[in-house]
């Protein structure tokens, strides 16, 4: 399995949980469409491994230590939160989405996997009255819209999965410039990690982990 090529030190239980993801999502997707139909056969690459780019960043940065609190905003069917919760059983994850049927899937998948460190709530993030160390999310919206939603919710930083052209004048470059200006962030404090430096597949070309410290 592709994930195991890049994460060789997983415990047996973690390996079993990763292997369970495909049949679980295939079953749920047949009832409630949470992953696009054309994407479900590439779940491990397009969703699980993509989510775990955040784990590679976390390893590199030395974060997600035991007891860390993370909120996954706009989790959809549970990405990146569910794969991260498998890799970090000592970290607490709150997975939030405004669409109830998606949260139902997340709750059922987490229960089937036996994940004790996952809570799932149907809510807009602005309505969550709780503090977290980190916000994670996967290309929910333009960062200039996203950062105001989560303002005041985190103590350490935002970790955002986003694709696009990061060269000057490129779409992602412009988005980050606008977000930095709108939210009064020094762009020099942001970290951009190209995912294809960790994972070799062509799918990850021009996809990044963006870290915005508080």
Write structural notes for this entry.
A seven-stranded mixed sheet has the order 3-2-1-4-5-7-6, covered by helices on one side. The longest helix has 18 residues, at 12-29. It has 214 residues and is α/β, with parallel strands linked by helices. It has helices at 2-6, 12-29, 43-51, 53-61, 81-87, 100-113, 143-150, 171-182, and strands at residues 69-73, 92-97, 118-122, 132-138, 154-163, 191-194, 207-213. The chain has eight helices and seven strands.
Please give a quick description of this structure:
With 214 residues, the protein is an alpha/beta fold. The chain has helices at 2-6, 12-29, 43-51, 53-61, 81-87, 100-113, 143-150, 171-182; strands spanning 69-73, 92-97, 118-122, 132-138, 154-163, 191-194, 207-213.
């Amino acid at each position: 399995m592709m994930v195991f090529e890049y994460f060789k030190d997983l415990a047996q239980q973690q390996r079993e949980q990763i292997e369970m993801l495909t049949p679980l999502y295939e079953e749920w997707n047949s009832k409630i469409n949470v992953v696009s139909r054309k994407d479900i056969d590439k779940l491990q690459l397009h969703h699980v491994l993509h989510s775990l780019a955040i784990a590679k960043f976390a390893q590199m940065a030395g974060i997600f230590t035991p007891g860390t609190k993370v909120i996954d905003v706009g989790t959809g069917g549970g990405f990146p939160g569910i794969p991260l919760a498998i890799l970090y059983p000592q970290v607490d994850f709150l997975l939030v989405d405004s669409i109830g049927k998606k949260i139902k899937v997340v709750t059922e998948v987490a229960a089937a996997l036996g994940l004790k460190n996952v809570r799932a709530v149907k809510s807009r993030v602005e309505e969550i009255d709780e503090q977290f160390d980190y916000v994670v999310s996967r290309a929910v919206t333009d960062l200039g819209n996203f950062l105001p939603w989560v303002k005041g919710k985190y103590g350490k930083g935002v970790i955002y999965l986003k694709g696009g052209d990061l060269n000057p004048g490129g779409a992602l470059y412009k988005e980050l410039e606008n977000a930095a200006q709108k939210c009064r962030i020094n762009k020099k404090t942001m970290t951009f990690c190209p995912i294809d430096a960790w994972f070799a597949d062509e799918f990850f070309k021009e996809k990044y982990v963006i870290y915005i410290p508080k």
